Every structure is written in structure tokens, then in C-alpha cells.
């Protein structure tokens, strides 16, 4: 993608999009706060561990980033295999620490944030430049096929799992910060 000089309209749109883009990210970080390396690996019946949420959300954000930015995905395919789906494939003893996962979550967020800051209205309608290869049904592939829709879907995904993280915190007797 060729980046045009930043106009006042693009700057205003970029600032609005960044505010929205950062909202769900900050929500997730706030909900992760208070877990430690041990408590982040366990969950009561009916819940996923907090560490899984970070890995899972990174996969979604990295995948969207890889679809629309040069260089493809940043995470390894092994990481996707472990974290993209349910937590049954995660080796909790060999999993990264909570601090490592939070750091990686921040890096993955920042990688896509650079693109979001430069978007124009026209960019939001841009078709995906590569084939969507994830094992998704057509509904989800259609949602990922345009940049604006893909960013919206990613925000919904983060918010949905933010709600589940809030439920996990409640089940563990932790306060829910909102």
C-alpha cells in the first residue's frame, strides 16, 4: 500500500480510529491486570484461563495484520496451532509466562496500530490483497475481505472475549473493573 501524505481529514480519521482501536486493547489489559503467572493458567469449570485469552486474541489481531500489511503474520504457525482455537492444545507447563504474553500482545497490537493511524475512508473499503486461508466459513471470510470490516470484526472479537475475561474474574472472586 502506498501511504499518501497525511491530510487534516486523514489525521482526524486516524485519531478517531486509533481511539477506537485502542479501546478494546486497553480493556483486555485492564482485565488481565491482577492475574499472576500461576492464576493466569487456570480457570474454573466453564471458563478459559486468562493466558489463553491473550494468545487467542493475538492470533486474531496478527491474522488481520498479516492480511493487510506487507510481511504477513508475525506469529509462528505453531503459536496459531496452540492458541487460535480452544485451549485443549496448550501445554500450560511450556507456555510463555504472563509477562511474556502481555509483552507480545502489546507488540502485536502496535504492529497493526501503525496501519490504522494512516487509514483513509477509501482504505476502509479496500479489498484483502491476499487469499484468506484460515479455516473459516464463508460468512467470516466475507467479514475479513475488506479492511474496515476486518478491523470492526477484530474489535468485536476483542470485546466479546473481554466480557468472558470479566466473567472469569468474577468467578475467581476478583473485581471486574467496569
Low-confidence runs: none
Structural class from helices and strands? Answer: mainly alpha
Please outline the major beta sheet.
Answer: none
The average pLDDT score comes to 89
| Helical run tally | 7
User: What Rg is obtained from the alpha carbons, in whole angstroms?
Assistant: 17 Å
Order of helices and strands: HHHHHHH
Helix content range: 55-70%
Description:
It contains 7 helices and no strands. The chain has 178 residues and is mainly α. The protein is globular, with a radius of gyration of 17 Å. The N and C termini lie far apart (38 Å).
What layout of secondary structure does this protein have?
Layout (H helix, E strand, L loop, with lengths): L7 H25 L17 H19 L8 H7 L14 H20 L3 H4 L13 H7 L2 H25 L7
Helix pairs in contact: 1-4, 1-7, 2-3, 2-4, 2-7
What is the gist of this entry?
The protein has seven helices and no strands. It is an all-alpha fold.
From the structure above, extract its key features.
about 180 residues; mainly alpha
Amino acid at each position: 500500500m502506498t501511504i499518501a501524505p497525511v491530510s487534516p481529514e486523514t489525521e482526524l480519521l486516524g485519531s478517531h480510529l486509533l481511539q477506537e482501536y485502542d479501546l478494546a486493547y486497553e480493556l483486555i489489559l485492564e482485565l488481565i491486570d491482577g492475574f499472576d503467572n500461576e492464576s493466569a493458567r487456570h480457570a474454573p469449570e466453564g471458563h478459559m484461563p486468562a493466558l489463553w485469552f491473550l494468545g487467542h486474541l493475538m492470533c486474531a489481531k496478527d491474522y488481520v495484520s498479516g492480511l493487510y500489511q506487507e510481511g504477513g503474520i508475525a506469529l509462528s504457525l505453531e503459536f496459531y496451532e496452540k492458541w487460535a482455537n480452544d485451549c485443549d492444545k496448550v501445554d500450560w507447563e511450556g507456555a510463555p509466562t504472563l509477562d511474556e504474553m502481555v509483552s507480545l500482545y502489546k507488540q502485536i497490537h502496535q504492529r497493526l496500530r501503525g496501519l490504522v493511524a494512516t487509514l483513509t475512508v477509501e482504505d476502509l473499503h479496500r479489498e484483502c490483497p491476499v487469499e484468506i486461508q484460515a479455516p473459516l466459513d464463508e460468512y467470516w471470510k466475507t467479514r475479513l475481505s475488506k479492511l474496515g470490516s476486518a478491523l470492526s470484526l477484530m474489535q468485536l472479537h476483542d470485546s466479546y472475549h473481554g466480557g468472558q475475561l470479566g466473567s472469569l474474574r468474577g468467578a475467581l472472586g476478583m473485581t471486574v473493573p467496569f
